Design the sequence.
């Protein structure tokens, strides 16, 4: 029987355009410790047996009589997906982020499995960065997790690429021919004849508009929210997206956010959004944007919630849990930082009461670097809402507070990269790890050429909250 994509997974392929690639990513920076391209290649090759989907590509059915299917790549070449790059001296963060922006702006090759990993050498002299790109249709948190979650371990793994266990031998199934694809489509149509009508309609209409309807249905909660909430206030964040990208990463201390929480109340999650409210306020003012005291920026904030039958949070994957989109108005017009935090704390408390939200400490126990997968699911949740309903995506996911390793190399920091939608010029991923908090800012090059300014205001917003007594 055909391994067919779900309606939601297929929709991410339908809505994708050359200037709006639908992949998520991360930028992991590690101490070198003998980690080089050959060792990363060996590590990934060994782990791929745990992720069969990473050796499959998408085959479209002739005439769109059914949704696409996953097909083994009989000519799979891991070295095509694990690539090598390097920075010129001195290998600064600015140089790395410029390279990341260019890498992430390129769509993935649809004739191959939909992922890439770049080994970037020369970071800060002798460090290494691992830059991942994974299509949203690939990562669903159950059958497939994000690549970054797979290659990072709690303990250093000696011998990777030095005569350790060899990669499992693998031989893909034969590629299905046109006749087989059509026969499988007919067989599946007998189980759900109404879907054939919809699939044929897809072939005759603009697929992006059809996919929009699929996402509306798949969103569930999002569809309800759409009917109840007025459109978001328009501003520079809702600009048509071009083909270029800019990226910036910001590092902060988790202890500082905890100090702010202890002093002014709320949760660390609330503090993250208050920091972003303050940063966006200063960024808008730097652009000369008029800000009345009641001005807001609406953030789409994906929340991890338990499913109706779930009693806990899985230690293996997300499994019985899901990520729901919620909308939070960030009070960027409010000049007092503590009042901004209080507004957000109240709004987030309402959202948490309405859902069975997963506690941060439970999420942090998920094996591997779970934020990578959580950010992939957050991007899915964001795609289920119309861009008219929000201005910016901000996805925060707590991670483990102990060191992680790729081979013997210790992970120092990791910045999430969320994709942009057609009219959304900024997406922000936030992850905590080993005492740090890392903000990844992905922006459109034309609309947010001043993204370094926004990155600088994040640190200023943290200092502002730390230094304010109430």
Sequence:
């Amino acid at each position: 029987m055909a391994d067919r994509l779900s309606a939601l997974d297929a929709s991410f392929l339908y809505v994708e355009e050359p200037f709006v690639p639908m992949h998520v990513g991360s930028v992991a920076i590690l101490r070198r410790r003998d980690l080089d391209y050959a060792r990363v290649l060996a590590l990934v090759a060994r782990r791929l047996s745990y992720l069969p989907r990473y050796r499959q590509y998408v085959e479209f059915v002739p005439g769109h009589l059914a949704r696409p299917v996953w097909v083994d790549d009989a000519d799979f070449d891991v070295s095509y997906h694990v690539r090598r790059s390097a920075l010129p001296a001195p290998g600064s963060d600015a140089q790395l982020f410029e390279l990341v922006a260019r890498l992430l702006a390129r769509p993935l090759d649809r004739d191959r499995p939909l992922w890439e990993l770049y080994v970037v050498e020369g970071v800060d002299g002798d460090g290494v960065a691992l830059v991942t790109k994974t299509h949203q249709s690939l990562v669903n948190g159950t059958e497939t997790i994000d690549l970054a979650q797979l290659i990072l371990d709690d303990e250093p793994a000696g011998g990777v690429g030095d005569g350790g266990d060899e990669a499992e031998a693998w031989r893909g199934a034969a590629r299905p021919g046109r006749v087989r694809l059509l026969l499988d489509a007919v067989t599946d149509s007998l189980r759900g004849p109404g879907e054939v009508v919809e699939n044929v309609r897809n072939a005759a209409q603009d697929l992006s508009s059809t996919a929009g309807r699929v996402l509306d249905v798949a969103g569930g909660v999002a569809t309800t929210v759409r009917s109840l909430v007025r459109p978001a206030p328009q501003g520079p964040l809702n600009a048509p997206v071009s083909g270029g990208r800019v990226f910036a990463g910001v590092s902060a201390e988790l202890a500082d956010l905890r100090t702010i929480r202890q002093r002014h109340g709320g949760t660390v999650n609330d503090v993250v959004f208050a920091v972003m409210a303050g940063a966006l306020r200063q960024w808008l003012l730097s652009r000369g944007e008029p800000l009345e005291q009641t001005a807001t920026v609406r953030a789409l904030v994906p929340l991890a919630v338990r499913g109706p039958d779930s009693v806990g949070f899985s230690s293996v994957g997300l499994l019985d849990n899901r990520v729901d989109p919620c909308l939070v108005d960030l009070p960027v017009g409010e000049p007092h930082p503590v009042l901004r935090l209080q507004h957000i704390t109240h709004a987030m408390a309402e959202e948490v009461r309405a859902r069975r939200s997963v506690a941060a400490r439970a999420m942090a126990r998920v094996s591997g670097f779970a934020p990578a997968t959580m950010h992939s699911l957050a991007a899915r949740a964001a795609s289920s809402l119309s861009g008219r309903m929000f201005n910016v995506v901000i996805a925060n996911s707590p991670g483990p507070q102990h060191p992680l390793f790729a081979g013997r190399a210790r992970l120092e920091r990791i910045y999430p990269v969320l994709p942009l939608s057609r009219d959304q010029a900024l997406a922000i991923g936030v992850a905590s790890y080993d005492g740090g908090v890392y903000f990844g800012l992905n922006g459109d090059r034309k609309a947010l050429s001043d993204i370094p300014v926004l990155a600088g205001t994040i640190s200023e917003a943290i200092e502002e909250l730390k230094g304010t007594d109430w």
The mean pLDDT is 82. The chain has 15 helices and 14 strands. The longest strand covers residues 297-306.
